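[Primary structure, fold]
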Amino acid sequence: MIRNITLYGNGGAGNHGCEALGRSLAGLLEGEQITYASANLEEDRKYGLDGIMHLEPLANAFDLSGLSLWGYRLAQKLKADDRRFFKVIYRDFLEKVKSEGIYASIGGDNYSYASSLWLAMLNDGIRKCGGKTVLLGCSILEHISDKDMIADLSRYSEIITRESLTYKALSDAKCGKNIYLVPDPAFALKADIGNIPSDFNDNVVGINISPMIISQEGKNGMAQENYVALCRYIIDKTDMRIALIPHVVWSSNDDRRAMTDLIDRIGQNDRIMTVEDRNAEQLKGVISKCRFMVAARTHASIAAYSSCVPTLVVGYSVKAKGIATDIFGSYEDYVVPVQQLTSANILLTQFKWLMDNEDKVRNHLEHFMPSYIAHTEEYKKILCR
């Protein structure tokens, strides 16, 4: 029997991690009827998601008028409540919910941010219309204590976590009975190597820096200082080249701005190349050809891990630590929390460790990854049981 599965809660494909989740799940759920509730139709079409699954908008325009708009404004003035706004913009989506449908919230770490009210409203709205809700590929927090969040999470039919730290937190908080641990779907993403830059070779360090980690740093300016020290070391003390690789190009959160600032600080150098924006499979193709990867974005690191590239992650939340722990047994040596960058050479010190242990790390990944990636096939089994 073919199931109707709707994927929702994800950002636009200008975040190539969001794109990677959508692409990977479309492949893993092949044979089912997939609808992708898009947060940004223009972006998702630009990067080709409309070629692999049916796209529909998640949110409609805020289109109240006349007495309805007057009533809304009066109610908000008397007591402001975001739920009124969400009821308007998700109205069309909820009206189309199928009673036999499966609705998978795939936003990765949406629940780790400031407000998850919109997710709770969609979870409740879908279930009231008879749909089955699943929280898929999530990372949340190492400790979950918010009662409203626990109540909301407990209402999902299944929760599939992508790393063990979140799995333990959900289990400890008793967030439902059906909690599973399955690797992030993007570990199964295909790599497109047909668009590699012509001057790329096998002696390149891929470097990804993001405004996100800069916003989370514990000491102002220290993230960039660490990246500058790392790049200068690579240029001055090794024969490797550097490829700056963006993984999110949203106007509000664009890795290319952080990359430009980094180049301004280091100075132009013919051993530094900038990789142009491209889709998630093509970015994975580029990353797969790197000798090492230093990644701030989670799905840039997943592209590297799954390609058996020795990788150092500059993390800011539980997801980086949890994924590395599941792969290596511990995140120490593999993840540098950005909040702990208190001096300029901390990242460089860890990168030197990675260089010294290059063969050991690569060999581990080559032995570990095949069975780990194969485990992503559990998504279809869990969703469609």
